[in-house]
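Dear V.,

Thank you for sending over the compound details. I've combined the ligand you provided, S-adenosylmethionine, with the protein sequence from our construct and run the structure prediction for the complex. I'm sharing the raw inputs here so there's no ambiguity about protonation or stereochemistry in the SMILES, which I know was a concern on your side last time.
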Amino acid sequence: MMKEYNYSVYTPRHIAREIVKNTLDNYFGGKATIEKLNRIRMCDIACGSGNILVLALEELIRLSKKLTGQYSYSEHWISGYDINPEAVEIARAKCQEILRKYRLRERINIFCKDSLELRQKFNLIVGNPPYLGEKNNKEIFQRVRKTEFGKRYYEAKMDYLYFFIEKAVELLEKDGVFTYITTDYWMKADGARILRNTLRERGNFLIIHDFGTSLFKKAVGQHNVIFTWKKSVDADEEVDVKSLGESFKILNSSLYDNGGRVVLANDQVAEFNRKVMKRANYTLDQLVNINQGLVSGFDDAFILEEYKEEFKSFLKPFYKNKDIGKYRISGKNRYWILYLDGTKKMTAPIENHLRHYREKLATRREVAKGTIPWWQLQWPREEKIFKEPKIIARQRCRDNNFAYSEQEIYSSADVYFITRKEEKINLFYILGYLNSRLFAQWFRYNGKCKGDILEFYSTPLRETPVFYPRDKKEVDYIGELVQKQIHDFSPLREKIINDHFYEKFGVGSLPLEV
Ligand SMILES: C[S@@+](CC[C@H](N)C(=O)[O-])C[C@H]1O[C@@H](n2cnc3c(N)ncnc32)[C@H](O)[C@@H]1O
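Below is the predicted structure of the protein with S-adenosylmethionine bound, written out as structure tokens.
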């Protein structure tokens, strides 16, 4: 339902107002003239029912009165495109109504057309492009991928909206500006590398307003950003940032981290990031393996609430992500999983139990493809990750809660299992670091988060900078404190560990509460 909403529902007035204001303020730079007004060529390439264009049109007509003493309109000022014919009709009608209001008559250039095929140039672009993932919309993506434009910009795991940003970059004249409202995922997402490179190489952000929350009542989980970008390669311009309740300016060259992701950090945070990067001598994936938990493909069949003697040889203790706390997992497992990874034949009692779910189990993709038998877990992973000593992490969590366990523990894909790359790596030291406030602060700005929730996904975790001392004594010192925390948590000891990392990295704690 949300996808449909994003694809076709229209921009609320206050957002449309911010988009139009940012774009025109930037174009006129406080000095509106009739010449400048006449040179405007504004386009909305996903104009829908015209909510943004209508506001822009009225704004320009009013401006003409201020500059010349009478209301006027030029058909070149605004254009709109959308593939939805009904929306186009509405947009046209709304613009006609505005013209009538000011007793003006001219052509309205709003057309039903696929705007990813457009070629003409504009100096201003505005929009709320359609947000769509590729997963359930393969055909739509396939059509674009076949074109020259699509070949230039397609990337795996991208969102359809990226094409509309890239199209805006291509359609703009030199020094042209576009303002969009989008989700904020592209700033850090793995599937937005080509997009970020394009934006970085071909221009400068002028404004980024990251709301950290949804601006659309019906799309609650979404986080939106309104941003203005200028096609200019000559200068490194300052961008006005509003994020996490703060406003600040930074140079475009300081916007990107080492991995090319957009990091909205004020000077203080940028300095913190620089120090962390400078001191770090490893990335986390050089020291440990980061493994995602298993996928059963149908939990009702495999996960049991009680232990059953007749399934003994396959039953393993199963934990839910909520069971993971700081340093420790909660008590005894409340669930058991039938760990059927295909290495052993199933027994008659298990077959008897699974038979009831056979139809559902058979519809799983891997079974349908013939890669696994109907009774096997879909992605059992390598069993050793559940057996070895490990750090366990919730994929999504308000805090950085990482736990340690040497027991056999199994969990689903919303839990990560972090195991040693080499025997000599001290997992307790790594655990201390991952649980520290310094790491939380680093991750909140540089890793991945949605609103308040930290998202410990594989890529940002792997790229986490770590300081792992050469001096074994130092590693063991933290390792021993951490072992004590696991057995008996003490706030005072926690402070000692936190201060140790702050001191090692030469940073103080940031004012932001984590
Ligand atoms: C989120 S809506 C925004 C509409 C508009 N900005 C508004 O607020 O009224 C996205 C629009 O993109 C349009 N769209 C999707 N694919 C398109 C394409 N290839 N070319 C032009 N428009 C497209 C949809 O029909 C939809 O109207």
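A first observation: Residues 1-7 have pLDDT under 50 and may be disordered.

Warm regards,
I. M.
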